[in-house]
Design a protein that fits this description.
heterodimer; A: Rossmann fold; seven-stranded mixed beta sheet; five-stranded mixed beta sheet; 15 helices; 41% helix; 21% strand; B: alpha/beta; Rossmann fold; two-stranded antiparallel ribbon; 9 strands; globular
């Protein structure tokens, strides 16, 4: 049995795929040093640094994918997609439709996301709902090292554009780079199960669009992704002593959404609580309520999401991100 | 009219001491996330900001504290913002990368290159509402490869906007050496867009002051934008805790884990031929070695020290000034650390 850190697992799965498939190349800002372990194994032709020119290199990645490569393009933070959204919105996402299904862009956009370490509102967003809103994009948000590696492998095999999220609180390297910076004087509320855990001996792809039930429960269904899954699991654990049985469904994929699993779980409990670090309005949390309503399932519903720009001050940030207290309070309300 | 070296040195020293205090707060864990200091670029900021008047605007990058301080924002407001207090400059909502002062028409952004469009827009409003006022954009050479900056330089040229584009060039785009990812000459790029360009030693405050003076006057009188290219050195690298600098300063602590994983990866079967692997290793080593050889080590590149040199002919006045600035910043630090009554 081997264990790995979150980003180590992603890189390891990537390495396995790169050894098998010479079409896979990586590029992005600082990628040679960020992926130095891949650089020294696969060489500078396959692990490349870019200028700070997101529109150019993401757009080029899309076209390179159309023309036969399997590029993994690194975006320093998902927030910076704002600079180059056109490449995804108007190109990567639409090529399959525009070509009458004859052409696709199998690009993987790998990007850190999320808050909880005090970097402010331009560097701590989630934005998966924003991306999943666009038909044609596949959106993955793993919550454990094993899922991260397996989903990266699936992303690399997928025949279309995939956005692969790495939450910075789960990633040993991103949190070190952007948070502690070698200091021992700062602490972050890092969910242990998500940062270092058991991974398979050899990576196998995890099917895209398949959720996983992290915890069974008959009274209440909590649905989440990323760090939210771990917060939800802690809350569910706390409910046990109060005689409340809460299940936790980890979506893993935002689009395509595992609607079957969502409906089954909610039909059973009659109570749905969505824990989503992304913005509350017009996003995943509302989408999940629609999925349930469209199936004619009646349930009690609540959500714990991010409602505002993420504040810089840590104590304010902690209040607005989905935390245990907010999850607990919402769940209690649903149980009344 | 020559620059007033005493007042320029005062601005620079104040900024340096404030940022050293910020570094200490960061190392003590009172600031949680990233911290990009502007230590090393004080001469560029002071040499430009000293020319600004009421009504002038600034568009700042993720190292905005020095410009705000020199423009007149109370340092205690900056420190309390960085500490996340509700009475900080932005109510604890912005942090060091997102500092805003409506009073001084100054906006910051953590998105590289965003200073370009912002300065263009501030300048556009000046054309209508505050004729004779200008906008300054401060950004690094890494931002020069960002489309929106290049587009706004073209816009400023086409619309004759009163903008001074100031490129603070330290040669590094985060951990990437800029020359490896940049084509052509930056001044020629500006000229290609119809913008006059000047190159200055960004460690020499007089030189920056003298070059920016005619550029700013040109903008004020409606003759359009100028591009100022100033070389400088960031003593702390891209941000505090910068891994390349940590490796150089404390190799025994930083290197073992990195080296073990690198070696393991280098030797792992499957992948590129040896020649390619060696080329990869060379890239990593080159980044580390160029940090070792870094001009950061050379005190001749310290703009504060250099601004001080000509003032040493009047040691009494210099001592008095330094005592006063040190006292001011230490008072600021003390009052910034006062907890908010809950």
């Amino acid at each position: 049995m081997r264990t790995m850190y979150f980003t180590q697992a992603v890189d390891d799965a990537l390495a396995q795929a790169m050894a098998d498939d010479p079409r896979i190349i990586l590029f992005g800002e600082d990628t040679p040093l960020l992926r130095r372990n891949l650089l020294v194994r696969f060489g500078p032709r396959r692990v490349r640094g870019t200028p700070i020119s997101e529109s150019a290199f993401l757009g080029a990645g899309v076209a390179a994918a159309m023309a036969g490569l399997r590029p993994v393009v690194e975006m320093y933070m998902v927030d910076f997609l704002g600079v180059c959204m056109d490449a995804l919105l108007n190109h990567a996402a639409k090529i399959e439709a525009f070509s009458g299904g004859k052409w696709t862009a199998p690009i993987v956009v790998r990007t850190p996301c999320g808050g909880g370490y005090g970097d402010g509102g331009q560097h701590e967003q989630s934005l998966w709902g924003w991306l999943a809103h666009i038909p044609g994009l596949t959106v993955l948000v793993p919550s454990t090292p094993a899922d991260a590696g397996g989903l990266m492998l699936a992303a690399l095999q997928h025949d279309g554009p995939v956005i692969f999220f790495e939450h910075k609180l789960l990633s040993e390297t991103w949190l070190e780079l952007l948070g502690s910076g070698g200091r021992r004087t700062v602490q972050y509320d890092v969910p242990a199960g998500g940062t270092k855990n058991v991974v398979p001996q050899k990576w196998e792809p995890i099917p895209i669009g398949k959720s996983v039930l992290r915890r069974a429960g008959g009274d209440l269904t909590i649905i989440s992704v990323g760090v939210g899954v771990h917060r939800a699991l802690e809350a569910a654990q706390a409910f046990e002593s109060e005689g409340i049985s809460a299940g936790v469904l980890d979506l893993r994929t935002i689009f395509p959404l595992d609607k079957t699993a969502v409906r089954e779980a909610v039909a059973q409990t009659g109570r749905l609580l969505v824990v989503d670090e992304d913005y509350e309005g017009f996003g995943l949390s509302g989408e999940l309520s629609a999925v349930v309503l469209e199936a004619g399932i009646s349930c009690k519903y609540a959500r714990v999401c991010t409602q505002t720009t993420v504040p810089y001050a840590r104590h304010l940030e902690d209040q607005i991100l989905p935390n245990r207290q907010r999850i607990y309070a919402s769940a209690k309300q649903l149980m009344q | 009219m020559p620059p007033d070296l005493w007042s320029l040195y005062t601005l620079m020293l104040k900024s340096r001491l404030l940022e050293e205090a910020i570094a200490k707060l960061w190392y003590d864990g009172l600031i949680s996330g990233e911290m990009h200091l502007g230590t090393g670029e004080e001469a560029i900021i002071a040499g430009v900001v000293a020319h600004l008047h009421e009504g002038d605007a600034m568009a700042l990058d993720h190292r905005g504290s020095a410009a705000l301080l020199m423009r007149g924002v109370a340092p205690v407001l900056i420190l309390r913002e960085l500490l996340g207090y509700p009475d900080g400059l932005c109510g604890g909502m912005g942090g060091h990368m997102h500092l805003f002062s409506k009073e001084y028409l100054t906006a910051s952004s953590g998105i590289v290159g965003a200073e370009g469009p912002t300065a263009a827009g501030f300048a556009l409003s000046a054309q209508y509402l505050r004729p004779g006022s200008i906008a300054v954009a401060f950004f690094g050479e890494g931002a020069m490869n960002q489309g929106m900056l290049m587009e706004s330089m073209n816009l400023a040229s086409a619309w004759n906007l009163p903008v001074l584009f100031v490129c603070k060039d330290d040669g590094w785009a985060i951990t990437t050496q800029s020359e490896r990812v940049t084509g052509g000459d930056l001044n020629e790029r500006a000229r290609g867009l119809g913008i006059p360009a000047a190159k200055v030693d960004g460690c020499d405050v007089s030189e920056v002051w003298e070059a920016s003076h005619p550029a700013i006057e040109r903008a004020r009188s409606g003759q359009g934008p100028t591009f100022l290219h100033a070389r400088c050195v960031h003593f702390e690298g891209h941000f505090l805790g910068f891994q390349l600098i940590r490796i150089v300063r404390d190799p025994l602590r930083e290197m073992p884990e990195i080296a073990v994983r690198l070696t393991h990866s280098f030797l792992r079967p499957g992948g590129a031929a040896l020649r390619e692997r060696l080329a990869g290793l060379e890239t990593v080593l080159a980044a580390v070695l160029s940090t070792v050889r870094d001009p950061r080590q050379d005190s001749a590149n310290d703009p504060v020290r250099r601004a001080r040199t000509p003032l040493q002919s009047n040691p009494v006045r210099l001592q008095e000034l330094e005592d006063q600035v040190e006292k001011e910043i230490s008072n600021v630090l003390a009052s910034a650390l006062v907890e908010v009554p809950s």
